[in-house]
């Protein structure tokens, strides 16, 4: 094995140990964390289906960011208003993983999403993909610090 390759393995191992060590105290509260984030997820879907861009933005932390294939976005209200204007009016979300980090004020989440609607010319919209999120406690409440969406590419023809 090359020296650079061995160093990469050692660094990755140390990083893994640090992550597990920092996460260990929070594992006792996994069920509570999952419940709290599921409640936030329910509020998110309700607001999305009502096309409440300001209500959705209220679920985000100060300085939050959304990252999608177009790039990073800091104007959360504008992101949702644009989606609603494009005709997207329904979302379904499945959470695959919630992982607490540190003491109890940060968590990671990931899963799948599907959006649907009708574009302005009347054609149906049906898209889906993967999402990842960083959740942070702000003012005693869980908020979204960063949301990343990765659209699923259609199968090759």
Question: Can you describe this structure?
Answer:
This protein has one domain (3-151): Nuclear Transport Factor 2, Chain: A. The N and C termini lie far apart (40 Å). It has a six-stranded mixed beta sheet. The protein has 157 residues and is of the alpha+beta class. It has helices at residues 3-23, 30-49, 53-57, 76-85, and strands at 60-68, 71-73, 88-101, 106-118, 124-138, 141-151. The chain is built from four helices and six strands. It is globular and about 50 Å long.
Order of helices and strands: HHHEEHEEEE
- What is the correct CATH architecture? Roll
Number of domains: 1
Largest sheet: 6 strands, mixed
Looking across the biggest beta sheet, what order are the strands in? 2-1-6-5-4-3
**Structural class by SSE content:** alpha+beta
CATH topology: Nuclear Transport Factor 2, Chain: A
* Bulk shape: globular
Which strand-content bin applies to the residues? 35-45%
Radius of gyration, taken over Cα atoms and rounded to an integer in Å: 18 Å
CATH class descriptor name: Alpha Beta
What percent of residues adopt helix (DSSP H or I)? Answer: 25-40%
Q: Distance between the terminal alpha carbons, to the nearest Å?
A: 40 Å
Which stretches are low in confidence, meaning pLDDT under 50 for 5 or more residues running?
1-28
Annotation, overall tally of beta strands: 6
